[in-house]
Write a structure and sequence with these properties.
By secondary structure, this protein is α+β, with helices and mostly antiparallel strands. It contains 11 helices and 14 strands. The termini are far apart.
Amino acid sequence: MTATTTTTTLRSYIAPPQTKEKLDWAELEALDISLLDQPGGKQALANQVLSFINKNGFFYVTGHGLTNHQVDRQYSIAQAFFDLPLEEKLQYSCDTAVGDFRGYKPRSTGELAARDNDERYNIPKFTLEHERPHPELILQHYEEIKDFSLHIHNKILLPLLRLFAYVLEIDEEYLVQIHRYEAKGLEYLRYMQYYPRTVEEDAKLGNLWAKGHTDYNTLTFLFHQPVAGLQVQQPDNTWKYVKSEPGPIIVNIADALEYLSGGFLKSTVHRVTRPPPDQADKPRLGLIYFARPEAEVKMKPVQSPLLERLGLQVPAAQLKALEEVTAEDWARARIAKDHRFRTGIVKKQETEILAGVHQKYYD
């Protein structure tokens, strides 16, 4: 796909100030992946992973090679996209009914507004499989978005996958080889915006903007978002806020990596709550990248000496049900299930996702 020659001048993105409220922040580890190229760095990072992996599924990544300016440019594109007329954005709607998240998802309105208060634009991998129409705004910045996405995949995701493979004591290229960028699979960059609600509206919903859940991909990368609200569930089932600062990327482990690692790398339970009073009137603009295994990868654990010593940490019945399920099957089932509740087809959130495997709800 070729970008157009005329480029619209973007409005500069100015991040909202951090909250001044005293919040209970989670203590997260930071993995400096630039150390992977230094003598002893890989082992040091592996030891770090082993020390924190069962405490918090969220962690920070530093030394990733992206500048604050590059991140802010993506936010400028995102805010320009959400400023477009709804009629224009709807021309690029995704088909979530069949489990396809490529394109635009509007927020719900009317009686269903309580279930879905965000809008999203998902830009998939820049491969022939995913060539599709985009708004002129996106086409004008197509190469810049592509470079940003490829950097995340090649320079951040792949080094982390090699590190996790090293921790699992398997071939360091094993996880990389099932996340080939050119292979069929739905991996995407997301622009996302929550909208503020009144105190009364939020109170009716338990002050939750997104209920506690796990993601269904491999790793999720969340870029600087200073409007507080993201929380992570602790081992004792309490919740703590996740602080976002310029520079570090927040990363969480998701379902696919949990299953592939036999439960050793646990999917992060997280939610989004109403922001503190000094931020509650602000939209919550987000920039997120979802990495996912190739479409045909089976959701079964790797053969790992570490897992042989520790034992599989996913229930045997669940592993049996998933052993013939592909990463694409899993993702589409989760997206379609969420679509049915969001659009009012079902009145209550369904628990079964696929093959007898059920999703837990945490609120």
